[in-house]
Amino acid sequence: MAIKIYKPTTPGRRQTSVLLSHDLTGAKKIKKLLLAKKRMAGRNNQGKITVRHQGGGSRKLLRVVDFKRDKFDIPAKVLAIEYDPNRNTRLALVAYADGEKRYLLAPDGLKTGNVVRSSRQLIEFKVGNHLPLKYIPTGMFVFNVEMTPGRGAQIGRSAGANISLMGFDRGLAQLKLPSGEIRLVDENCLATIGSASNPDYKNIRWGKAGRNRHRGIRPSVRGKAMNPVDHPHGGGEGVNPIGLKHPKTPWGKPALGVKTRKLGKRSQKFILQRRPSRKKKK
């Protein structure tokens, strides 16, 4: 994969780059693995906006992705590498030896024709294979990792994500996440060997507002540009600083880099090191 930069024929083109899709292979969509996606536009079941700056966007179909990979010890042949409009990682369409087809998260480097396998036992350390953490050597990169055995993968699923397996202690595996957090999970949790596909996604320059509107992201307005009645940062003549010791949300709560994790959460004991906080811009 690579990033393509267009000739600057317009102001939008000047700033825009796109991801080339040489890694994708055409395949006929399988209706059984597609679902309709209802667009909520950031609203809850009462119609109230709970997540701002969402709405519009192109229509999408949900792909049913197998995060559990619970067909153990049955080889699966990769039929196609596909684009998923709902996530930034590529999907691999695989066909198991018994004829069933499923979508899996594709690791970086997986090709059509490759064979992957999932097992609860020790199997070959090949990119795309899915097995318990306790059988994986220390220092190896994994992704698509479970947090609770049998629940399905929950962490390390975005484009280019890789999790470093640091060691084991009393039945728990130490994982260093892409954020820098070091966390403990059960050594029986399953993980996929390799790194998540599409690592160049982070280098895309969206270029213009229209591309974000197609993604379902609506415009956001700076608090400084508002009136005092609308935002704590608002008001003043001309270009002014926010006039506060710390930035605040529109509702007066602390913003930017503030820890929001609930104190005394039961899973707190599994976090050995928190992710580093965001550096303040001077």
Structure report:
The protein has 282 residues and is mainly beta. It has two domains: 23-29 and 54-201, SH3 type barrels (Roll), CATH 2.30.30.30; 221-282, Ribosomal protein L2, domain 3 (Irregular), CATH 4.10.950. The chain has helices spanning 11-15, 209-214; strands at residues 3-5, 17-19, 34-36, 61-63, 76-82, 91-96, 101-105, 115-116, 130-132, 141-143, 145-146, 153-155, 163-169, 172-176, 182-186, 190-193, 271-273. The mean pLDDT is 91.
Content-based structural category: mainly beta
Radius of gyration: 22 Å
- What's the CATH topology name of the largest domain? SH3 type barrels
Major beta sheet summary: 7 strands, antiparallel
Instruction: Output the strand order for the largest sheet.
Output: 9-16-10-13-14-15-17
Primary descriptors:
single chain; 282 residues; mainly beta; SH3 type barrels; Ribosomal protein L2, domain 3; 2 domains; seven-stranded antiparallel beta sheet; 4% helix; 24% strand
In short:
The protein has two helices and 17 strands. With 282 residues, it is mainly β. The chain has two domains: 23-29 and 54-201, Roll (SH3 type barrels), CATH 2.30.30.30; 221-282, Ribosomal protein L2, domain 3, CATH 4.10.950.
